[in-house]
Every structure is written in C-alpha cells, then in structure tokens.
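Postdoc handover notes: sequence design on the structure in folder B. Input tokens:
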C-alpha cells in the first residue's frame, strides 16, 4: 500500500501495484506532511499530520476553506 494525503484534507491509501484507491479518511485539515509507517510488537501503524495555515494557503493559491490548526492521526493496520 501507498499512503498519501491532499490539501483538501483526505488521507488516502492506494494499492501499490494497481493504483486503485483502497481507503479514504477526511482529516479536517490539509495534509502537510508525509505519512510515517512504523511497527510496534509486530503491529503496523501509519501516522499522518494535518492542518492548514490560511496565509500559506492564500500565498500558494490553495483552498481557503480548510480549517486551521494541526492534528496527528495514527491508524492501526489490520
């Protein structure tokens, strides 16, 4: 799987071989960092940070309707 996100606040997972979207989660803010995968005791987790900064969005011409702030979401993979 390949994990990524977009500026409109969606965390996404794709099949690495086919490119098919497997999963989508609305984060509440634009994705500002690369997802990080890690393992603890054989269990795999993916951490994804989100949050928008209106001044930067306006400068870059991005969407202006994304909530500001920052959050870190951690998902456990089955």
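Designed sequence:
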């Amino acid at each position: 799987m390949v994990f990524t996100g977009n500026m409109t606040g969606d965390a996404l997972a794709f099949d690495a071989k086919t490119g098919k979207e497997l999963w989508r989660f609305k984060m509440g803010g634009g994705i500002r960092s690369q997802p990080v995968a890690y393992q603890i005791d054989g269990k795999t987790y993916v951490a994804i940070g989100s949050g928008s900064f209106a001044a930067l969005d306006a400068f870059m011409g991005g969407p202006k309707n994304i909530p500001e702030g920052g959050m870190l979401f951690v998902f456990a993979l089955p």
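Context for whoever picks this up: Helices lie at 54-60. Don't rerun without checking with the PI first.
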